[in-house]
């Protein structure tokens, strides 16, 4: 027997159920498409709402300074604490009552930082000789201090990772290809960790990624800048203060000087030839030609002292 319902011939009970299933699937498919597009609309609306909210929030924080976190009693591990930024940051944390764990390959410099930190009121300061480029050594020293850091931080859902990258970690730099690639890697690692931790809703583990231009610590002794107003050689105290404030305010990115934000934006929109012209204008292409570095500078100063 054939029964025609609508345009489909139905010959038996099975066919009827097949037809019903088809209709059901068709409807489900339609419903699915409908619900997917509704989801997309809802998703997009939610995204725009969040985007606007975070935009307004960032504007508000430009005017009203963020509440600074308290680091008293916190354990702060600083690698490369024996001089420059590491030492200055140790001073800042010491004067705010943090417990300091200082690592450096140079024991003498590290001991001097320890002495200065204690003078600043550091409650507890521990120093360790460690070559951070040696994985085994890092784990050996970590065992004596806080074991492996990130898993412990994740477990406690508490902590703050600070990465000192560089402007050379955002823009390739002439005669600095080795340094620049390590700084790009440091930036990539820190930013990826920040995103992973956010995704895993480990929102209490904060990240700060710092990208400064040349700082007068001695590391880039001899390097010059053509237009100090746009790209000044930075004062180390100023940079350390900026970094410390960024950590306390839980700022994720810190580029110093401010012109760096504009330069980074320009890099995305101008042609490579325009970028080279800009680099030439700012003298970035030749800034390393006069590089002497700390060792040579110290040797030269020593020779000059002896000649006097
Ligand atoms: N000075 C700059 O112009 C400048 C610019 C941008 C970024 N940075 C970055 O800022 C950070 C601090 O730089 P700084 O100018 O204070 O340098 P610095 O030379 O004054 O201090 C670096 C410290 O790290 C120690 N160190 C070096 N290799 C080590 C190792 N393998 N293991 C353990 N300790 C080691 C040194 O003994 C020294 O005490 C660095 O990561 C640097 O790349 C510096």
UniProtKB/TrEMBL annotation:
Record-level GO cellular component terms: lipid droplet
Any GO molecular function: oxidoreductase activity, acting on the CH-OH group of donors, NAD or NADP as acceptor
InterPro entries reported for this sequence: NAD(P)-bd_dom_sf, SDR_fam
Xref: SUPFAM superfamilies: NAD(P)-binding Rossmann-fold domains
A Pfam short name: adh_short
Name of the molecule in the record: Uncharacterized protein
Source organism per UniProt: Myodes glareolus
């Amino acid at each position: 027997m054939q029964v025609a319902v609508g345009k489909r011939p139905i010959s038996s009970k099975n066919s009827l159920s097949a037809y019903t299933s088809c209709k059901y699937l068709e409807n489900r498919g339609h419903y699915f498409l409908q619900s997917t597009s509704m989801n997309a609309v809802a998703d997009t609306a939610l995204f725009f709402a969040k985007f606007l909210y975070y935009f307004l929030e960032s504007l508000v924080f430009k005017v009203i300074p963020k509440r600074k976190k308290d680091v008293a009693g916190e354990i702060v591990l600083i690698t490369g604490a024996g001089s420059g930024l590491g030492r200055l940051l140790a001073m800042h944390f010491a004067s705010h009552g943090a417990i300091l764990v200082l690592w450096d390959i140079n024991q003498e410099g590290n001991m001097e930082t320890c002495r200065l930190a204690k003078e600043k009121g550091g409650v507890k300061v521990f120093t360790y000789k460690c070559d951070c480029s040696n994985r085994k050594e890092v784990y050996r020293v970590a065992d004596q201090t806080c074991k492996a850091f990130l898993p412990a931080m994740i477990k406690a859902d508490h902590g703050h990772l600070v990465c000192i990258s560089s402007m050379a970690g955002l823009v390739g730099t002439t005669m600095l290809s080795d340094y620049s690639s390590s700084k790009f890697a440091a930036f990539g690692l820190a930013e990826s960790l920040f995103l992973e931790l956010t995704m895993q809703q480990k929102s209490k583990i904060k990240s700060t990624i710092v990208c400064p231009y040349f700082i007068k610590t001695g590391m880039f002794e001899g390097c010059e800048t053509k237009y100090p107003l746009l790209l000044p050689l930075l004062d180390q105290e100023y940079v350390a203060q900026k970094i410390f404030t960024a950590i306390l305010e839980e700022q994720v990115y810190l580029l110093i000087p401010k012109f760096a934000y504009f330069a980074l934006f320009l890099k995305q929109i101008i042609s490579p030839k325009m970028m080279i012209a800009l680099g030439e204008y700012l003298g970035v292409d030749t800034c390393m030609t006069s590089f002497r570095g700390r060792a040579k500078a110290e040797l030269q100063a020593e020779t000059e002292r002896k000649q006097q």
